[in-house]
Amino acid sequence: MNARDVFLTAADDPGLDLAMLTDDGDTLEMGEHVRVTLKIEHDPDTDVNDFDCYGTLSDAGTFGRGYCNDYGHHTRPDGFTGAARKLWHGNDGPWWWEPPADMRNAPAEDLRRMAWRVAELAAYGFRCIGVVVEEEVESTIFRGMWSWQVVAEAWIRGVDTDDPAYVNDLAREMFADVVEEISDAAPSVGGTMRGEVGA
User: Fold this and answer.
1) Apex CA 163: angle with CA 9 and CA 128, to 5°?
2) Which of 3, 124, 169, 191 is the most buried (most CB within 10 A)?
3) Residue 56: beta bridge partners?
């Protein structure tokens, strides 16, 4: 049985334990020379301002005297209202934050929690979560040398939490995507899922 069939057979097994895919580096062995790995990486392309639900964030007006008024105080960025506030997260910040419209009259504790969450995302950023299928392939040049080659992968960007249950839900969705991709692809030559791979 070639690697593609090994993977699809394992993926169809009702006993396959996808519940273990909750953290970066978690790996499922799908059979000989085939594995699935969960990867969590920093998302450099997503920020708080990509989502209306977080309000608006800006560092304009917080640095340098050029942003001060005649009294030496930092002024709010253009378009920000009296509801805006400055946020810090440890040594990161400050940022000006304008809460979303539906939160401006929220209870103080709810607003405080949201402000902390926005500051955390501003400091640490969002995440990319991926499910990667790899096949261990012997080099066609140097016999006896093996390396892991990516066969299929699915990624979700802009994830704002690393809660294990939520991450696992995403992992299950992406696992179904890669199973479909591999199932729909024509079997490759050489007995591997993507053909012989040289060193």
Assistant:
1) 70
2) 3
3) 98
CA quadruple 80, 158, 91, 67: dihedral, nearest 10: -30
**Comparing C-alpha atoms, which of 170, 129, 179 is closest to residue 152?**
179
Q: Quote the distance between the C-alpha of residue 30 and its chain's center.
A: 23
| Of 126, 150, 122, nearest in space to 136 by CA | 150
For the chain, strand residue ranges (E) read: 27-31, 34-43, 56-58, 85-89, 92-98, 126-138, 146-159
pLDDT digit string (tens) for the chain, length 199 residues: 677 888 899 999 989 999 999 999 999 999 888 999 999 999 999 999 999 999 999 886 555 434 566 666 667 788 888 888 889 888 787 889 999 999 888 899 999 999 999 999 999 999 999 999 999 888 777 777 888 889 899 999 999 999 999 999 999 999 999 999 998 876 654 445 544 333 2
- What would the two tokens of residue 175 be? 């696992």
Distance (Å, whole) CA 33 – CA 126: 32
